[in-house]
Design a protein that fits this description.
The complex is a heterodimer of chains A (226) and B (401). By secondary structure, chain A is of the alpha/beta class. Chain A has 8 helices and 12 strands. In chain A, a hairpin with a 4-residue loop joins strand 7 and strand 8. Classes of the chains: A alpha/beta (226), B alpha+beta (401). Chain A binds chain B through residues 10-13, 15-17, 19-20, 32-33, 56-57, 83-86, 103-109, and chain B through 177, 180-181, 184-185, 187-193, 195-196, 215, 218-219, 350-353, 355, 357-359.
Chain lengths: 226, 401
């Protein structure tokens, strides 16, 4: 049974979300503030986190940041559940590594559908064999990348983007394609965060970052090494 | 006949002499006028100049006229004021406007001589004095190329401090954003359960359905309160003047009324309210006074849902008719860092696990403060967390009512 952690300070909302996940066959745990939420993420490593942004103790953005930095949590997908509907807030959350967002008032049915989509994408481990590409090496058992044999610490989103591009090295990939690979669908808000994730990925590759090329008006490409 | 001819000659001569005289007069008149108009023109120039300056001084904006060499050659009194008496006349704009954005705007317009309107923001320590010393100030900058004083091309610069309106705009935007945020949570609960209940078979199981309806009902009540409080605060903040129904009323009745309305909560929490209020009359708006007391007592109860709280209400009217009322409790209190902000709209003190069933509206204490101020009074709060938290309202003796 897949486990869902709901971090939400409004008891009635947490119960509503919990009720709907349980009905659909998930095991549910609830945390009522940010500190408790972060503890439960690191300890229990749930399959998916539903995260409210405005929380007592530690807010949702800080939780996202801490999750990204910790190897125990950086690959756990997150759906933001928030009353903030300003586009900037959503962008900020997605840039910090959240996989999706849903704004209050929300339809529990839609939330479940989005959660199922994310979980499905994550279950299907990328069908990839070990490969070498210039300075990069992919290890399918460790599900990790190495640059000049140094392990790369990538977030789930960066990992997916990089793997997809490496498998198609030399070919330009358009933005919509990349968005669909990473988030399952594309909309304007997600599209605006793509560049941030690519920028961060490039930075993590250090001096080999130039392997990622921006194709103006189309998308991105990983250069084929000579 | 000769007599007639003679008299004709006399008359003719007379007329001739007269017209001659008149001509001489006209000539001297002309000279006088010419002299006068010369003087007038000089005077007019002076008075024209004075009129222009008066006109400029009457402008609400600060006015500067700047020559194409970039020298400030005329200002109005507002301009003098915002530069705090600094001597800026006949100085180059480089020495006058130290802000780089402002300077580059002026230089650009000086070279192109085109009109412009822009809003610029200056840091708090900028050279322009503004009422908001600790915050950025916002200025509306207008530039017109126009020669008022000389044939040379020059630009006229006008500056107006719009910090206050920018600020009130922001307050309004924040209010709308916060209010919609507050409404979204109860709406989510209602629409979320509704989605389930209206599904096929959603009502089959009676007990969970009833529980959901109970939860939805609580949140309908919450929405109602948010809307009520929003209307109340906007009424209290609408103008400087809040219409009050002033009449004599008994404050002890108000207190009893509030205790009665909160009786269920008080009993449930096993809390006690001690009332030391004599039966005296005040002049004020009873509706607002009940609201003030209700919000303060309910707030104390809501902040301490899990402990039997002791609340003490003490009111006194001193010999000079100054009124004071204290509402004290022994609950978890308000951290010192939060104390300055508790009367702000939608401000919430974050606490560990202070899980009440339904949160407040976030407007309660702002309403209290505004209502007290509408009565000419003040409210203060002190808190020693866990020991004693006191709200004190003081209304000085009413003189004019």
């Amino acid at each position: 049974m897949e486990s869902i952690l709901i971090i939400e300070d409004e008891i009635d909302i947490a119960n509503l979300v919990g009720f709907n996940f349980e009905r659909n066959g998930y095991s549910v745990d609830i945390a009522h503030d940010g500190r408790e939420g972060l503890e439960k993420i690191l300890k229990n490593q749930p399959d998916l986190v539903i995260l409210d942004l405005m929380l007592p103790e530690i807010d949702g953005y800080k939780i996202l940041k801490k999750m990204q930095r910790d190897t125990r949590s950086h690959s756990i997908p997150v759906i933001m559940l928030t009353a903030k509907s300003q586009i900037d807030d959503r962008l900020k959350g997605l840039e910090l590594g959240a996989d999706d967002y849903i704004t209050k008032p929300f339809s529990p049915k839609e939330l479940i559908l989005r959660a199922q989509a994310i979980l499905k994408r994550n279950r299907v481990t990328p069908v990839a064999e070990d490969f070498l590409l210039g300075p990069f090496r992919f290890d399918k058992n460790a599900l990790a990348f190495f640059v000049h044999d140094q392990p790369l610490s990538l977030s789930l989103i960066e990992f997916k983007l990089f793997l997809f591009l490496c498998q198609r090295a030399g070919q330009s990939q358009d933005r919509n394609n990349l968005l669909k690979v990473v988030w399952g669908y594309s909309d304007e808000i997600h599209s605006r965060t793509l560049d941030t994730h690519m920028k961060r990925l490039r930075k993590k590759l250090g001096k080999e970052g130039s392997f990622i090329e921006t194709i103006r008006g189309i998308g991105y490409r990983v250069r084929q090494p000579e | 006949m000769t007599y007639f001819a003679f008299s004709c000659v006399i008359v003719l001569a007379y007329l001739l002499v007269r017209s001659n005289k008149r001509q001489q007069g006209a000539e001297s008149e002309l000279g006088r006028l010419r002299k006068k108009s010369l003087l007038d023109a000089r005077n007019q120039d002076k008075s024209h100049n004075r009129d222009l300056q008066q006109l400029l001084d009457a402008l609400p904006q600060a006015f500067f006229s700047i020559t194409k060499e970039g020298v400030v050659n005329r200002i109005n009194s507002q301009a003098g004021r915002i530069f705090d008496g600094r001597d800026i006349l006949n100085k180059n704009i480089d020495q006058v406007f130290l802000d780089s954005a402002m300077r580059s705007l002026l230089l650009k317009k000086l070279s192109k001589l085109k009109p412009a309107r822009k809003i610029l923001r200056f840091p708090p320590n900028s050279i322009f004095s503004s009422n908001t010393h600790d915050k950025d100030s916002h200025w509306e900058i207008e530039i017109y190329p126009l020669s008022l004083l000389s044939k040379n091309s020059e630009i006229q610069l006008m500056m107006r401090d719009i910090t206050a309106s920018v600020h009130s705009d922001q307050v309004r935007k924040d209010f709308v954003a916060n209010a919609s945020h507050e409404l979204r949570t109860p709406l989510s609960v209602i629409s979320g359960y509704l989605e389930h209940l209206t599904e096929e078979g959603g009502l089959d199981q009676r007990e969970p359905a009833q529980k959901m309806l109970g939860t939805m009902d609580r949140h309908v009540v919450r929405i109602n309160r948010i809307v009520d409080d929003m209307l109340l605060i906007s009424k209290l903040e609408s103008d400087d003047f809040v219409p009050l129904n002033l009449a004599p009323f008994c404050i002890a009745t108000c207190v009893r009324d509030v205790i009665e309305r909160l009786e269920l909560v008080i009993k449930k929490q096993k809390s006690t309210i001690e009332m030391e209020v004599a039966e005296f009359e005040l002049i004020g708006d009873q509706f607002y006074w009940t609201q003030i007391l209700f919000n303060l007592v309910e707030n104390a109860l809501k902040q301490n849902p899990s402990i039997p709280l002791q609340i003490r209400i003490h009111a006194e009217l001193d010999r000079d008719d100054n009124f004071k009322i204290h509402i004290a409790d022994n609950g978890i209190g308000i951290p010192a860092t939060d104390l300055p902000f508790i009367f702000k709209r939608f401000y919430r003190v974050e606490k560990h696990h202070s899980q009440t069933q339904v949160k407040g509206t976030g407007l309660g204490l702002s309403i209290v403060k505004r209502a007290v101020e509408a009565h000419g009074g003040t409210i203060t709060a002190t808190s020693t967390p866990g020991i004693e938290t006191i709200f004190t309202i003081a209304i000085p003796k009413s003189h004019d009512e």
